[in-house]
Specification:
With 177 residues, the chain is of the alpha+beta class. Helices cover 39% and strands 26% of the residues. A hairpin with a 4-residue loop joins strand 2 (13-16) and strand 3 (21-29). Helix 4 (133-158) packs antiparallel against helix 5.
Length: 177
Amino acid sequence: MGEYVLNMSNDKLKIAAISGKIRLENVQLDGDLIGSHVLGAVGLSGFGILSCSARSVKISVPWKNLEKEPTRFEVQGVHLVCVPLMPSTATTIYGAGTQLDPRCTLRTRAKRSVLARFERNYFSGRIPGEGPPSRKIRRAVKEVERELRRSKSKKRNSGTKGWEDDDDAIIMLSLTL
């Protein structure tokens, strides 16, 4: 749901985790993503989304029977404002001038929205094989530490001397990443 809902805050989120009921009120939705699904379903394309919001979003998760019962999403009061993306409208400036709604051209707004969605998916790990560099670094450090432990146990078993100080070896190998 985080891919579709923008700027989610705890005061908008009411969760009854045991019953599997989630309710969001007055939420800003990812207009380009929602708009492309809605407009694409009726055969329309080439629209720039100015804003998209919903009065409420209800989610019902059947925790006790996830395999046989569907998870339900109920969206009420969707407000989608869009304009055709043509040369005459693509350079028109829209927006309130706030941080959440900056004043920019429709073309720029569309590009920013696509980039923001890509960044959210990247940093949340939704893109297979991709993710934040910190996760990759942590994974590489764990692999190096695992290899050190293996080589240390092999050296003990074979009776050869290894590093005088294993902590120095870990630091040296970690810095070479």
